[in-house]
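Homework help thread (please don't just give me the answer)

Our assignment gives two proteins as sequence + structure token strings and asks us to describe the second one. The first is just a warm-up. Here they are:
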Amino acid sequence: MNYFSFLAQNTRWLLGGFLLTFFSSFGQTFFISLSGGAIREEYNLSNGEFGLTYMLATLGSALTLPFLGKIVDHVSVAKTVLFVIPALAAACLSMGFSQNLFMLVLVLYCLRLFGQGMMTHISLTAMGKWYSMRRGQAVSIAVVGHQAGEAFLPVIYSAALIWFTWRESWTISAVFLMLVALPSIYFLMKVERVPSDFEITDAESSKTKNWTRAQVLSDGYFWAMLIAVLAPSFIGTTLFFHQDYLLELRGWGKLEFSLSFTFMAFLTFVFALVAGQLVDRFSAISMLPFFLLPLSAACVAMWAMESVSGSFVFMGLLGVSYGFSSTLFGALWPEIYGTKYLGAIRSIIIAMMVFGTAVGPGLTGYLIDIGVSYPLQILTMGIYCLAASGIMLFVSRKIAARKLVDS
């Protein structure tokens, strides 16, 4: 089956996975941060105080996700979205009417849990379970919903502010989720995919052990992989969250920077699809040592370049790394740990990634408040990525050797 035949025969499930990640945007940092300046002004918060608020809300969602996320091992995707999407819409609506700091924390908690956490978790768990031979390609198509959101929503939001307040924009988002996202995703995913006999035979021949969540948590290589796996979410969230401060620091315009988002999203889209082909051909494990190298280069570029062209260099390299990592993270865990308990396993991983997105803004916001150079912080992140790539070279070889012994 060629690539276009694969798309044609699996349109409903791939489009459903894509829409789940696209509409997760309303709980992603890049979208929330578009209102960051208005929120800080409304609640009289410094960069550090808003970062701490965001961190507390995100930590709460990270702690909840392992308990809520395992539901996808027992309840169908269609039934799950009937709960998750209305909950996300309610959070968007509440953002439009929140009046005190406690309410803000609760709203941010729900946006992060149901948007960034559950919408992405449902999509990638479904792709991991429903596909084997073409898992990399299926995941790569689903995850580019994130990039579509990053490409279009900042521009749409900026344009909407011409006619609406930031609160009204969040209310419109809630209506859009209920009238567009919920019926379309439910319709597409109400029929679950059944792998063909050929795919089942292939999956069985790989003899991948189905690890339980407890077994995964006792695996030393799992914790070693998190050294690299958590880096993109930590770094990307940090930079997007403090984008207003970065624009002030560099003297860049908001519209110019929003265009660099589109450039990043385009390259992420391209390299997510490239990564899907590479995963299916060589394996996700073999890609572990390389996916952070463009992110390392991106951080160095942001530290070194002060002109507005630097934002395009940074965002372009970030897009390359995001493309590889988004596909890799969808295919890596079922390849190593099997699919039977994938929902429970992925919920832990997503929770830890959410934890990284919580720590990043809070920690860097505090460092900004006490006078630590933000560009220097970004350079340090780049050095970390380079070191993590070296560690992954060792880890990937050990995991590959273990799989050969177990097969």
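The one we have to describe:
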Amino acid sequence: MDLDLLYCGDVILNEPKLTLPHPRLQQRRFVLQPLSDIRPSLMLPGFDHPVQELLASLGDAQAVKVTEKDW
């Protein structure tokens, strides 16, 4: 099992086996979109902008279209 822990409150951690918040969280629409749906104004530790702005900064370049053929 591969479990990606995204964040844990205000914890900032950089250890060999665990980095919090997740080191590429701000680059992943599939992470930011649902998080923004739930808590758009959430300020993650170590970031200067809320989740909704991190998501908006991705623009359309990071958009992924899933079609029935992908199932």
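TA reply:
I won't write it for you, but here's a hint about the kind of observation we're looking for: Helices lie at 29-38, 51-58.
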